[in-house]
Amino acid sequence: MYACIEHWTTVWRWSSFDLVSQVHLDYLEAGADIIITASYQATIQGFEAKGFSREQSENLLKKSVDIALEARRIYYERWSKSSSGGTGDGRILKNRPILVAASVGSYGAYLADGSEYSGCYGEAMTVNALKEFHRRRVQVLAEAGPDIIAFETVPNKIEAQAFAELLEEEHIKIPAWLTFNSKDGVNVVSGDSLLQCASIAESCKQVVAVGINCTPPRFIHDLILAIKKVTTKPIVIYPNSGERYDADRKEWVENTGVSDEDFVSYVNKWCEIGASLVGGCCRTTPNTIKAIYRALSDRSPAAPGQK
């Protein structure tokens, strides 16, 4: 079975938690089967630097999971009250399994200097230092009750190793996925071997899926084929729109990506060669997810690669 994934950039300047819930609902009503919490760039260290206490910082992380869980509850409530399946007004309201994934972004996302797109943390950075940076954050998110933990936009081998070791050391019971990003369609963004990075995920029993996110769609085909060489686990794919991120200006460069129509044109091929979960990352929208949902719904049960 294929699944659509919702992903959206974390916004912590919330005027209302209801706005975050509404975004989740927009994606659910567009057909998303997995919603990812708004915690990608949220860290205890980052909150504390802004003046929050340790308790407040941990509560904000928990809140990101609570909001997603509540959005799922509201969605099911809307489905139960719907008599038309939600297709008449453009909404997709179906009684289907929906998972909440707790997002854990890379150390580079915390730095907010674009280094999650380079993987360059400096020679002094170690696996142990990365584990200590992420440890309490992972514990708090796991305790909040998500269905899965999404380690996203992993840019280098040492952070993949840190995440794998953390899962084992902390005896995290919740399954996880690791997704990497690439800017050349061959290696992860640091230049480390994708095969070595994916092998780390493959060797960790708590990791149940491995794949690629926040990478231009044009690179995904070859990356899937590469990952298949070293993993037997489901492959999860959620590219960005293909637009280029300007780390100096801290913004995406408009008109450098692909349209929703072009994005979705790749989906069937990705599934045929091995992708099991497909969604959209930065600069994609609920409209993108709806188009992916329709593409996956149109696939024949006998199609190559169908799970």
Q: Can you describe what's shown?
A:
It is built from eleven helices and ten strands. It is an alpha/beta fold. It has one domain: TIM Barrel (Alpha-Beta Barrel), CATH 3.20.20.330. The strands form two sheets. The protein has an eight-stranded parallel beta barrel, surrounded by eight helices. Strand 5 (176-180), helix 7 and strand 6 (207-213) form a beta-alpha-beta unit. The N and C termini lie close together (5 Å).
Unreliable sequence segments: 10-15, 302-307
Structural classification:
alpha/beta
> What fold name goes in the CATH topology slot?
TIM Barrel
- Major beta sheet, strand line-up: 1-2-3-4-5-6-7-10
- What's the shape? globular
CATH class: Alpha Beta
Beta-strand residue percentage: 15-25%
Average pLDDT for all residues: 90
Largest sheet: 8 strands, parallel, barrel
- Whole-angstrom Rg: 18 Å
Total number of domains: 1
Question: For this structure, what is the CATH homologous superfamily?
Answer: Homocysteine-binding-like domain
CATH architecture: Alpha-Beta Barrel
User: How many individual β-strands?
Assistant: 10
SSE series: EHEHHEHHEHEHEHEEEHHEH
Taking the alpha carbons of the first and last residues, their distance comes to 5 Å
List keywords for this structure.
disordered C terminus; TIM Barrel; alpha/beta; globular; 11 helices
Layout of strands and helices, then pairs:
Elements: E1 3-6, H1 17-28, E2 34-36, H2 44-49, H3 54-81, E3 99-104, H4 107-111, H5 127-143, E4 148-154, H6 157-169, E5 176-180, H7 194-203, E6 207-213, H8 220-228, E7 235-238, E8 244-246, E9 251-253, H9 260-265, H10 267-273, E10 275-279, H11 286-297
Parallel strand pairs: 1-2, 1-10, 2-3, 3-4, 4-5, 5-6, 6-7, 7-10
Antiparallel strand pairs: 8-9
